[in-house]
Design brief:
Mean pLDDT: 96
Helix content: 25-40%
Structural class: alpha/beta
Shape: globular
Largest sheet: 11 strands, mixed
CATH topology of the domain at 8-257 and 440-485: Amidase signature (AS) enzymes
Distance between the termini: 24 Å
CATH superfamily of the domain at 8-257 and 440-485: Amidase signature (AS) domain
Low-confidence stretches: none
Oligomer: single chain
Length: 492
């Protein structure tokens, strides 16, 4: 029997159906992998008992011939998703001890399909970060290392625990959330696949909110096909979420025909930014050639308001965060730090419970929403958001999908950029436009740089056309070839 932790979801699904191995054997292999990899700090909470119970139920269903779509598949769940009765912290001290009395819609969809939960995955606090260094539970470590170096690297953020656990073969797949690139950016720097669906495609109900008009759940896995398999189950219309769209969910796996002949691929000139490393441009050109070789046609397009996307994002997102995070006051749930009166209790709890980055964004958000500054900042940012969305609409009159880099560079060292918030924010320069416009985007691993670190390419699609992203993404994936497995230094 091959190493069960190296299987794809598609292979594991087939193996379970053929009874080549049991769900319990598959789950036990992953539980052991999680235990051996604690040096990566991927998990906030491990749930082996829950996983084994789920695996036993899966084996009974498989034996009875009533297996569900994802029966017995072991996944990790980002700690932003509320899981009934299981600690959910959103990477923050202020939610210490919080065990939700309800299940998020996305995780309920997965569990109803037979998924086995291995635990809750580490993340940037309240999803605010690009490197997984803002977590109260300490940073996640990227499984990859530079050639000839032992410097610990970041796994990207905020879904860094999800990305590192998938890349490190601790889980077959994971849930993530993407507010400004928090699925695609960590996927790119850990050498896996991650898709941010169209806003409204996956329910946000039961997901701890960062910026409600930008947040979107999505799958992370080692192949495009695996993401398509997970996405089919995660996506649904949900009456509990007023932004959930009532549209049928396609069979994304069936859409992956491998045929992109005649497809028009837009290349936005504005994504050639100043100071972009030559290796990113080289990778982009490779991606263009791969799609040409597969029969696609390249079209030059312009997204003229791209340069305003990052500043607009860092006004809109903190503004919404300052409102969403007002509920954490020490009264109803989580951390409570006593004070001489209720006001001082609020102040003490929030000062102790929120980390520096969260405090910074709450202050920025409160400032841009305050009297005298609302029109100058927030209103202008919303107008720019409309213009950015219009840019995409105009571009899609000429093409079917856009091809861009996923990140401005590979993974960097832990603590290399923590003292420079602006440098950290620039990691999302290629991804935030997609969230501001509410569009789907996927990151596909496209090779290694000269230091042996993964790099990714991004495909951006039309609203609710994730099927095309999966189809084109698989073509890119096959052209690039599989990445080697990162050397498991953490097991030594």
């Amino acid at each position: 029997m091959s190493d069960l932790t190296s299987l794809t979801i598609a292979d594991a699904r087939e193996g379970l159906r053929k009874k080549s191995f049991s769900a319990r054997e598959l789950t036990e292999a992953h539980i052991k992998a999680v235990e051996k990899a604690r040096a990566l700090n991927c998990f906030v909470t491990e749930t082996p008992e829950i996983a084994l119970k789920g695996a036993e139920e899966a084996d009974k269903r498989i034996a009875a011939g009533s297996a569900r779509a994802l029966e017995g598949i072991p996944l990790g769940i980002k700690d932003l998703f509320c899981t009934k009765g299981v600690l959910t912290t959103a990477g923050s001290h202020i939610l210490d001890g919080f065990q939700p009395p309800y299940e998020s819609t996305v995780t309920r969809n997965l569990f109803d399909a037979g998924v086995v939960m291995l635990g809750k995955l580490n993340m940037d606090e309240f999803a605010m970060g690009s490197s997984n260094e803002t977590s109260y539970h300490k940073p996640v470590i990227n499984p990859w290392r530079r050639k000839g170096s032992n410097t610990p690297l970041v796994p990207g953020g905020s879904s860094g625990g999800s990305a590192a656990s998938v890349a490190g073969r601790l889980v077959l797949g994971a849930t993530g959330t993407d507010t400004g690139g928090s699925i695609r950016q960590p996927a790119a720097v850990t050498g896996i696949v991650g898709i941010k669906p169209t806003y409204g495609r996956c329910s946000r109900w039961g997901i701890v909110a960062f910026a409600s008009s930008l947040d979107q759940a999505g799958p992370m896995a080692r192949t495009v096909r695996d993401c398509a398999i997970l996405m089919k189950t995660m996506a649904s219309h949900d009456p509990m979420d007023s932004t959930s769209v009532d549209l049928p969910v396609p069979d994304y796996e069936a859409a992956m025909t491998g045929d992109i002949k005649g497809l028009k691929v837009g290349i936005p000139k504005e994504y050639r930014i100043d100071g972009m490393p030559p290796e990113i441009e080289e990778l982009w050109q490779k991606g263009i050639q791969w799609l040409k070789d597969a029969g696609a046609t390249m079209v030059d397009v312009s997204l003229p308001h791209t340069k305003y996307a990052l500043p607009a994002y860092y006004i809109v997102a903190p503004a919404e965060a300052s409102s969403n995070l007002a509920r954490y006051d020490g009264v109803r749930f989580g951390l409570r730090v006593p004070g001489k009166d209720i006001i001082s209790m609020y102040e003490n709890t929030r000062a102790a419970g929120f980390g520096r980055e969260v405090q910074r964004r709450v202050l920025i958000g409160t400032y841009v929403l305050s009297a005298g500054y609302y029109d100058a900042y927030y209103l202008k940012a919303q107008k720019l958001r409309t213009l950015i969305a219009r840019d995409f609409e105009d571009a899609y009159k000429k093409c079917d999908v856009l091809l861009t880099p996923a990140t401005p560079g590979p993974a960097f060292g832990i603590a290399e950029k923590t003292d420079d918030p602006i440098a950290m924010y620039l990691n999302d320069v290629f991804t935030v436009t997609v969230n501001l416009a509410g569009l789907p985007g996927i990151s596909v691993p496209a090779g290694l740089n000269r230091e042996g670190l993964p790099l990714g390419l991004q495909l951006i699609g039309k609203a609710f056309d994730e099927a095309t992203l999966f189809r084109v993404g698989e073509v890119l994936e096959k052209a690039a070839g599989p990445l080697p497995r990162p050397t498991p230094w953490w097991e030594v």
